[in-house]
Amino acid sequence: MTSIHLIRHTDHDWVARGLAGRMPVPLNADGVRQAEALGRWYAGRRVDGVWSSPLPRTRQTAEPIARPHGLTVQAADALLEVDFGAWEGRDFADLENDPAWRRWNGSRGRARAPGGETIAAVQARMCGFINDLCDRDPEGTHALVSHGDPIRAALAYYLGVPIDLFLRLEVYPGSVSVLSIDGWGPRVERVNLTIGDGGIAASP
Fold it and tell me: Is 83 exposed, middle or buried, given 0-12, 13-18 or 19+ CB atoms closer than 10 A?
C-alpha cells in the first residue's frame, strides 16, 4: 500500500485576498510558523519522499517536512497551482462582477480561466502523478505539497465526486489529506486535517 499525504501550503499574504496563481509568492510569518509545526509533526512519522510544486510557498512548506528525514524536496510540475491565465494576480473583490468568474465557480467541469487551464486538466496531471508514484513505490509514504484547487481535484477523483461539486471539499492552508492506494483501489482516509504541535486535529 502506498500512503499519499496531500498537503496544502501554509499561509501567505494572498490567501483569502485573490488569485496568487503561479506568482512567486512566499509564505508570510504565520505561514513559516505553520510549516515548522508541520515539520515537527512529521519528524516522528514515516516519510519516504517529499514532493512539491516548484513555487516558493510550497517549497517553503515542504522543506521542514523533509529536513528531519534527511530528504531533498523534489519539485514536480504536476503539483503546480491552476494556471489562472488572465486572472492571475487579481483580487477576488475585482472578479466578483466578471460573468466568466461566476461561470467558473458555478461550473468548474466546463469553464476555464481566460487563457488558463481547466480543472479537468489539473485533475489529470495530479492523479497521473499520484498513480505513477504508487506504481514506482507500492509500499512507500510520500508527502505531496501542492495548492488548494489541485488537491480538491485529486480528492474529488478518488472520492468519485464530480468536478462541478469539488468546492464542497474544504482544503485549508496547512491542511493534510491522506490517501491509501493498493491493489484493491484507492481509499480516502483523511480530509482537511490541520497540524498542531500536539498532533492532528480537525480544522475549526
Answer: middle
Backbone angles phi, psi at 123, to 5 degrees: -60, -40
Q: What angle do CA 41, 46, 52 make, to 5 degrees?
A: 75
Burial 43-52 (b: 16+ CB within 10 A, else e): eeeebebbbb
CATH number assigned to the domain comprising residue 56 = 3.40.50.1240
Please tell me the distance from the alpha carbon of residue 81 to that of residue 44, in angstroms, as a whole number: 29
The whole-number average pLDDT for the span 60-66 is 98
Could you report the per-residue pLDDT of 2-14, keeping only the tens digit for each?
A: 999 999 999 999 9
Distance CA 38, CA 67 (A): 11
Could you give the CA distance from residue 178 to residue 131 in angstroms, rounded to a whole number?
14
Q: In the beta sheet, which residues pair with residue 122?
A: none
What the block records as the C-alpha cell of 119 is: 480543472
Whether the Cβ atoms of residue 96 and residue 35 lie closer than 8 Å to each other: no
Domain count, the chain: 1
- Which residues, at least 6 apart from 54, have a Cβ–Cβ distance to it below 8 Å? 75, 76, 77, 80
Q: What single DSSP character describes residue 149? A: H
Residue-wise pLDDT tens digits, 119-144:
999 999 999 999 999 999 999 999 99
Domain range holding 47? 2-202
Conformation bin of residue 44: beta by default, left when phi > 0, alpha when psi is -120 to 50 = alpha
DSSP 17: T
